[in-house]
Write a structure and sequence with these properties.
Layout: H1 24-31, H2 37-54, E1 69-72, E2 79-82, H3 85-104, H4 112-125, H5 136-160, H6 165-187, H7 189-195, H8 198-227, H9 231-251, H10 257-285, H11 314-317, H12 328-366, H13 384-394, H14 399-441, H15 457-498, H16 501-507, H17 515-551, H18 555-559, H19 566-574, H20 578-682, H21 700-705, H22 714-717, H23 726-729
Antiparallel strand pairs: 1-2
Helix pairs in contact: 1-2, 2-3, 3-4, 4-5, 5-6, 6-8, 8-9, 9-10, 12-17, 12-20, 14-15, 14-20, 15-20, 17-20
Length: 731
């Protein structure tokens, strides 16, 4: 796009702290942190020092030196107190992520990756039971929101840098993927209850962004198709972008004016692209426009990541002020054990991610959605968009009658104009023929080679005006024909929409499934449910493993264990994870059998799927056609009225021209008669060869004219013209 409109971003409030007697100066700075990057540095330094403190002094839950620590919970405003130093760390880490989210939402659009990193570290290394705002669901939501907004910033920069269309499309698609994950979390009933009243606002904004950035992705896919001269694909991508943007506009109701301006700007860009592409394809390229689902889906490109948090980085935390308080041996041993746990988690996650990748690729290739695999529900009712049109026509019962009457009036005026112009053309042609005959008889033009004699000035003017009217009429005739075609196309649909709803419902296609087909569908749904059950169980086991690792603190045991026994202690402690590892292995092993069963079920489903797809396509086409007929009504009425006005004006002009033509032709005919009489007078009388009989038969030409020889002038009264050609006699 020529410019890059910005969407607002979600940022998080900071938690407020109660009193804590330790690290008072540093704590004071961390509690009253400035809202800038210096504040982020202060929080990181305090977080690092807390990490050093808790690794040396038993201040954890139910430990000897534990003290009460109080912080407010964001969503309820209540004060939550725990006697656990890790609670202090968790709250500081939360504020670090929240402050980065504030900075990321500002004009410079930076820092979102840092926010995601803080929340990721909080999720993976701290208990989730401290408070609602640090629960696993809320942290996952925050992570996806921050990653989505970071990817959104990258998208903005990519468009400003004029990166390649395909790359921009993939970046935008990844924004959509992150926001979809966030939206799923927002739609979760448990998460919604935790968030309270802000859940609806966040959900509405995120849903709007999903459609908006999906539109941006398809806009750039259309631009790529344009670059590759795939003009049919260009049309469908721009059409899809327009559809998704319209959905975003619907969801943007109530959003700030900045959002509305961004949507209007984007609509101008996408609407212009679509109209231009469709017009070019219709009139120039004539490429077939493929269905969107036949094209390869846009795969997101995750180019942002949660920046890691390192609580022991001296460049961030400064020197360890508690270095002398705890034996380093115990600290080192604890770190070694943490590394063993991390190694165990990495090994398990590598297996899970490998299986998940296979599963995702398999399901993507199958393109099976458990909730819409049969989509039979849609056929049981008239869609709302069609109901709206039926309701609108129900209060306008004369819609079809008015349209037909208007077109009939137009046809009548059209016919009158055509008849008048034809009569004028016939008069001109007859006059030209008579003029040619006269010229040939007078010997001025050879009969076979003569060109049309020049018409009289009056007829020349009539001929010129007639040609002009005929040209206008011929051009308008094509439009009139197309208008009648359009009316014939839409009038049946308008009658249907004006009728009973039962008839409208009956006109919509619906699938006719056999019992075997229904059994195939049920079997496929059952296996798809197994796939989802396997996914859910895998996620649950993974979460259990993570929580076990987070809670697994053997610092007390390490202090009393000899260094030489450390390895053995590690091995014994790590055995607590064996059972959950077995469950995970069983889950991963079951995937092959489940996918094999799904493959077999999908093969049987292929025929049913094709039939359902065809019916759905026909259903959608029928609905779109009926809606288009409704929307075409006003346009048809307008154009038919314009046609009537045009032809009424043309009819008046043609009638005047017809009278003018008649008068000019009569004058020309009279002129020809005068010329003929003069020529006949010039003929020398024939030499008489015998006395005139008492009774002589009239010449045929005079008899045909109803004249007697006595009616002619004296020199011609006795003239016999046997040599006159037949053409002259008819004049």
């Amino acid at each position: 796009m020529e410019a890059v409109p910005r969407m607002p971003m979600i940022w998080l409030d900071l938690k407020e702290a109660g009193d804590l007697f330790l690290l008072l100066s540093t704590l004071q700075s961390a509690v009253n942190v400035p809202r800038d990057f210096e504040g982020c540095s202060t929080l990181r330094k305090y977080f690092g020092q807390l990490h050093y403190l808790q690794s040396r002094i038993p201040m954890g839950a139910e430990q000897e030196a534990a003290v009460p620590i109080a912080w407010t919970e964001i969503f309820s405003g209540k004060t939550v107190t725990h006697e656990d130093i890790k609670y202090e760390q968790a709250c500081i880490l939360y504020n670090l992520g929240a402050l980065h989210s504030m900075l990321g939402a500002m004009d410079k659009r930076v820092s979102e990756e840092c926010a995601a990193g803080a929340f990721t570290y909080l999720r993976d290394h701290f208990p989730h039971s401290y408070s609602v705002d640090m629960s696993h669901q809320i942290l996952n939501l925050n992570i996806n929101l921050m990653l989505g907004q970071a990817q959104e910033c990258l998208l903005e920069k990519s468009m400003l840098d004029n990166r390649k269309s395909f790359l921009v499309a993939r970046i935008s698609a990844q924004v959509v993927d992150y926001y979809k994950e966030a939206c799923r979390a927002l739609e979760n009933s448990e998460t919604a209850s935790l968030l309270g009243k802000i859940q609806k606002d966040w959900k509405k904004l995120v849903q709007m962004k999903i459609y908006y950035f999906a539109a941006v992705a398809h806009l750039h896919m259309g631009k790529q198709a344009e670059e590759q001269q795939k003009f049919g694909e260009r049309v469908i991508y721009f059409q899809s972008a327009l559809d998704k943007l319209n959905e975003a506009i619907k969801l943007a109701k109530g959003q700030p004016e900045t959002v509305q301006e961004a949507l209007r700007f984007t609509m101008d860009v996408i609407g212009g692209k679509y109209n231009s592409a469709k017009k070019d394809n219709d009139f120039i390229y004539h490429e077939a426009v493929p269905a969107l689902d036949t094209l390869q889906s846009v795969k997101g490109a995750p180019l942002v990541k949660a920046l890691p948090v390192n609580p022991t980085d001296p460049a961030v935390t400064g020197p360890d002020i508690f270095a002398k308080l705890v034996p380093m041996a115990a600290h080192e041993a604890s770190s070694l054990y943490s590394e063993e746990k991390a190694k165990l988690l990495r090994d398990v996650m590598a297996k899970i991610e490998a299986k998940n990748e296979v599963l995702d690729q398999f399901m993507d290739s199958m393109q099976l959605d458990p909730e819409t695999v049969d989509n039979l529900e849609m056929y049981s009712h008239i869609p709302p968009v069609l109901m709206e049109k039926c309701a609108a026509l129900s209060v306008r019962p004369d819609t079809v009658k008015n349209l037909v009457q208007s077109m009939q009036v137009l046809s009548g005026v059209f016919t009158d104009v055509e008849a008048s112009l034809k009569e004028i053309r016939d008069l001109l042609e007859e006059d030209e023929a008579q003029e040619r005959k006269l010229q040939e008889l007078l010997g001025k033009v050879p009969p076979a080679q003569g060109s049309p004699p020049p018409p009289s000035p009056g007829l020349a003017e009539v001929s010129k005006e007639c040609s002009k009217y005929m040209e206008v009429h011929e051009k308008a005739s094509f439009t009139n024909t197309e208008l009648h075609k359009a009316m014939n196309l839409h009038v049946g649909n308008l009658r249907l929409l004006s009728g009973p709803l039962e008839q409208v419902r009956a006109a919509l296609p619906s699938p006719a499934l056999t019992e075997d087909d229904k059994q195939v569908l049920q079997n496929l749904k059952r296996i798809l449910a197994k796939v989802q059950e396997m996914r859910d169980q895998r996620m649950s086991l993974e979460q259990q493993l993570r929580e076990m690792i987070q809670k697994d603190d053997i610092t007390t045991s390490l202090v009393t264990t000899d260094r030489s026994e450390m390895k053995k202690l590690f091995e014994e402690q790590l055995k607590k994870y064996d059972q959950i590892k077995v469950y995970l292995e069983q889950n991963l092993a079951a995937q092959e059998n489940v996918l094999k069963a799904l493959t077999d079920a999908n093969v049987k489903y292929a025929t049913v799927r094709k039939a359902l797809a065809e019916v759905e396509h026909k259903w959608n086409t029928t609905v779109q056609t009926l809606v288009a007929s409704y929307e075409a009504y006003e346009d048809l009425m307008k154009k038919s009225q314009e046609g009537k006005d045009f032809y009424t004006d043309l009819e008046g002009k043609a009638a005047k021209l017809l009278e003018k033509a008649r008068a000019a032709c009569q004058a020309a005919e009279a002129n020809r008669q005068q010329i003929l009489e003069k020529e006949m007078k010039k003929q020398p009388p024939p030499r008489p060869t015998a006395p005139k009989p008492a009774l002589q038969k009239k010449p045929p030409e005079l008899e045909a004219a109803g004249l007697d020889t006595g009616d002619l002038p004296l020199p011609l009264g006795s003239l016999v013209l046997p040599e006159l050609p037949e053409e002259l006699r008819s004049l």
